[in-house]
Amino acid sequence: MNKRILHILVVAQLVVVALGILFPIVWMVMSSLKSSADVTAYPPSFLFKPTLENYTHLLETTPFFAYARNSLIESGASTILGLALGIPAAYAASVTRSSWPALVTLSARMAPGTLFLVPWYVVFKALGLVGTYAALILTQAAITLPIVIWVLLPAFDAIPRSILEAALVDGCGVLRSLWRVALPLVSSGLVIATILGFVFSWNYFLFALVLSDEGTKPLVVAAFNYIGEGSTDWGGLMAAATLIALPPLVLAIAVQRWLVAGLTLGAVKG
Amino acid sequence: MSLSASSRQRGAIALLSLPAVFFTALMVVFPVGYTIWLSFRSAPLGHATQFAGLANYAQLFHSGSFWNSIEVSLALYLLSLALQLIAGTYLALLLFHARRMPAILRSILISPFMVPPVVVGMMFLVILDPSLGAANWILSLFGLPPSAWLASPQWVIPTIALIDTWQWTPFVALIVLGGLQSLPPSVYEAAKIDGAPAHLVFWRITLPLLLPTLMTAAILRSVDLLRFFDIIYVTTQGGPLDASDTLNVLGFHIGFELFQFGYASALAVTLTAMVFGVVLSLNRLRKAVAW
Prior knowledge:
The structure holds 2 protein chains of 2 kinds.
Chain A: H1 2-32, H2 36-39, H3 53-61, H4 64-96, H5 100-110, H6 114-126, H7 133-157, H8 161-169, H9 174-185, H10 187-203, H11 206-211, H12 219-230, H13 234-254, H14 256-269
Chain B: H1 7-16, H2 18-38, E1 41-42, E2 50-51, H3 55-61, H4 64-98, H5 103-114, H6 117-127, H7 134-141, H8 156-181, H9 185-193, H10 198-226, H11 230-235, H12 247-256, H13 261-288
Antiparallel strand pairs in B: 1-2
Helix pairs in contact in B: 3-13, 4-8, 4-10, 5-8, 8-10, 10-13, 12-13
């Protein structure tokens, strides 16, 4: 009996905390569905007639889809680049039990972005690359590469050594043993590395703030423009916010079970 | 190396990390070297740089805005870290005692730190609006006076700390939960047999055993908190006046609004030294409390 009451108390507290975590996100979506009169009503209205006018207005009056395409190109390509560099590096680090490649890339993640930005800006400017996809993809890969290694290194480490050894002794070649034997065994880690790389690249603001121009601006940087106009148009601002947050949220929730395991495994090992 | 692969294979395996090493050298190591070099040079935009010795650092350490930023960054860092570790441990204990984590709960927990920080800034701009925001309405329900939140010089740092705590507490909680689940159950059973009260078990057994995990969480959060940028840039831009002007926001202003590259580099190097100093000390502490 005592135990049951305790359990109910725990669950009740969890429900309150979960509602607190949800509130800002729900409020954002609700505000995006309100008419301009409802969104600035005080006290705030909970019962209102939902409308999509903020979304249609946003998509009709601003090049939202062009920014979304930029985000997709930059996050997608930098994730592919991060995977192409990170998979062999994590595999090699795991097989040879050497930790320094992982250490170097992870300490790169610790440094503040302003440490790299000035040289990047100077060099890309000299090469005429400021405002190009190339510059944005290369710099965003500095975000995705450490994430790929962070997630995949413990995944490779979890493969029994005898399996890796057998593959190498069979003489199937190093690249083949990675591709045919090791990689299929870390497939869930691979999905997590891909999704986390994409999400963190999609969300990263500072590099694109400096290195993009009007034609290559990703959504998070374009969002900054919407804030200027947002002081008069909360509904439009929240519609933009909702659409920008949607891809990372959907991707993360689709793989939530693996994602939590992948994140905490890296942390516990780190 | 533990594998009995041939030396030719060993060489081939080592080669696999070459692309990543090359990329890191080009995109990270070279820029860091360049920034350190620039920090010793005067570099006005469009002119050749000149050796300036420690002039940039001297200017930095004599600048009032630099010391203000140190104060702002440290206040934001310590307040946020404390809030997130306490709230994260509380949430982790709840999750641990609930035993089951339904998919809906796990989805709710990961949502905040999957939302782009820029979007977090946008949603809280609306919620915390001093005149029409939902936050002040909620305060009024409890009979509390309204707050100016981000517009108040005194409250802007606690407000940003609360926003970041909202975003990252679930992440801390999931890491602490991992730590809780890896604690040896035998210790608890011994305590139970001895009839130790619950609060004593927590303070004397659970918490000391959790310290290494808490240190890991603290290190991960420190790295992000000390270079705080996105949410401040989209909400206050360092204001009101300079009340939320963190080191990274100041550095961005000097580098990419004033284009004083040498000076900005000196600041970036100083900030990086701070981050590494904190991380290395916390890592030492983590090893000291390991069991």
